[in-house]
Amino acid sequence: MEKTLNRRLSVAPMMDWTDRHERYFLRLFSRHILLYTEMIAADAVLRGRRERLLKFHRREHPVALQLGGCDPEALARCAQIGAEYRYDEINLNVGCPSDRVQAGRFGACLMAEPERVARCVAAMRRAVGIPVTVKTRIGIDDRDSYADLVDFVQTVSDGGCRVFVIHARKALLQGLSPKQNREIPPLRYDVVYRLKQDFPDLKVILNGGITTREQVRRHLEAVDGVMIGREAYQNPYFLASMDQMFYGDSRAVAGRGEILDRFCEYVEDQLRQGMPLVGMTRHIQGLFQGMPGARAWRRHLSENAHRSGSGVEVIRKAASFVLGPS
Predict the structure, then answer these.
(1) Active site residues per annotation
(2) Strand 34-41 and strand 132-140: pairing?
(3) How many degrees, rounded to 5, is the angle at CA 275 between CA 269 and CA 279?
């Protein structure tokens, strides 16, 4: 029997951002939020440096592996590998609009091939005992009617998918960059709400443009879960009270200094394993967003973390511009 995950809140898979260091950092803000890897292409899993791509810290759980691909057999093998690495979920990317992804015939362009997506999902579900989910858009190019979306969801759910993460924008596969595709097509939350109404037996998770706790609360009245993207990366303390607000957790909200102390313990361990400091500090620059001294904090990290032999003293010194001497 598949394990049940609490999908009330999650942090989106974000290329170049949600690597294992970022996910460990975000886990310090919340014990419950579901975290996602960056999208990893199936070919990279099968032929690349698997340990570097898939390794993660046990404290990251619950954590989902997002895959990119279009071949059912290859994706099934990747799902097996993900399960062997103890991921809690396998997610198929059917939403990324980049040219590179399209060239590999996966990502958002797969919305035009719902039967193929259904075959991929079915193959992955046969291969693993953990949930297999799909992250997609509300449409692509001229395939953007509600009827098109319903056809896609119905077809893919027939393949066994019970959870759909819906970015509430269509994607334009020609003429817009991935960044523009996150900003220019209008958000259509009403479409995702309607989808949940029409498919009450499916889990529908809403993604796109969420920047306040009140927005989270409002969306949760209409859908099963909310996925937060860039706000979680650029202003991570936004997540600090989510456990108390949305999971009924009675523990006190951790302060920024406490979170930083705990992350420094992780940094010291990673440094002993040969990880360069800058690979970790690049993810924490938003910790003090909006606070006096935040600019000096970011500047000190940017100017010093890349230096040979740099250690946690760089982080401590940067924090002193905000928190004062330790």
Answers:
(1) 96
(2) unpaired
(3) 110
